[in-house]
């Protein structure tokens, strides 16, 4: 059985990463949206919508990780956020595009 203190600490640490990341993106959504556009994965119209959706899901995941009854949902959303970011970076690295700003904040 995992020590609950470790679970709470790990959840809080990941929540901080996600919430601070979302806050940085919200401070300059134009820059984050430009970074998403630069990845050249989505059509221009969808890239802007994706930018907002990504930040909102990132913030929601962070908040849910802090609520004991909703931690599993928060973990699932966190996994989605991290998987999307990783896939975007990996796709562009595979394309040989190593000079794109990650948009992480």
Overall description:
The structure is a single chain. The chain is built from 4 helices and no strands. The protein has 105 residues and is an all-alpha fold. The chain is elongated, with a radius of gyration of 15 Å. The model has no long low-confidence stretch (mean pLDDT 93).
Properties at a glance:
mainly alpha; elongated; 4 helices; 105 residues
What do the pLDDT scores average to?
Answer: 93
Structural class: mainly alpha
- The quaternary organization reads as single chain
Backbone CA Rg:
15 Å
Straight-line N-to-C gap: 36 Å
How many individual β-strands? 0
| Overall form | elongated
Low-confidence stretches: none
The helix/strand order is HHHH
Quick structural summary:
The chain has four helices and no strands. The protein has helices spanning 4-27, 29-38, 44-65, 71-94.
Q: What topology emerges from the helices and strands here?
A:
Elements: H1 4-27, H2 29-38, H3 44-65, H4 71-94
Helix pairs in contact: 1-3, 2-3, 3-4
């Amino acid at each position: 059985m995992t020590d609950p203190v470790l679970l709470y600490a790990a959840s809080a640490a990941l929540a901080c990463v996600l919430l601070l990341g979302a806050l940085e993106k919200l401070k300059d959504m134009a820059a984050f949206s430009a970074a998403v556009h630069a990845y050249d994965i989505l059509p221009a119209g969808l890239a802007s919508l994706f930018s907002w959706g990504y930040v909102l899901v990132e913030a929601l995941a962070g908040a849910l990780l802090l609520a004991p009854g909703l931690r599993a949902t928060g973990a699932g959303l966190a996994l989605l956020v991290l998987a999307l970011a990783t896939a975007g970076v990996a796709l562009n690295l595979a394309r040989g595009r190593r000079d794109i700003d990650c948009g992480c904040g």
